[in-house]
Amino acid sequence: MELVKRFIREDDGVTAIEYALIAALIAVAIITSLELLGGSISDTFEEIEDAISNAGN
Fold it and tell me: Dihedral sign, CA of 41, 42, 43, 44?
């Protein structure tokens, strides 16, 4: 019974879970933003590639 009481009082595990949830939410936000901006980023790099290729001619 004392083991259960001590487990309930300790909050180290709760803190670790909170940090894991925050990290997961940040990862979801990054993935979502990359999905939304992926096409425009790709277009920008293609324009840069074309400009560099044409600069040598």
Answer: positive
Residue appearing with tokens 């400009």? 51
Question: Along the 57 residues of the chain, how does pLDDT read in single tens digits?
Answer: 787 777 667 666 677 788 899 999 999 999 999 888 877 888 889 999 999 988 866
> What is the Cα–Cα distance from 37 to 24, expressed in whole angstroms?
20
**In the numeric block, which tokens belong to residue 1?**
């019974």
Q: How far is CA 25 from the centre of its chain?
A: 7
Query: H helices within 1-57, ranges in order?
Result: 2-9, 12-55
Q: What type of residue sits at position 54? A: N
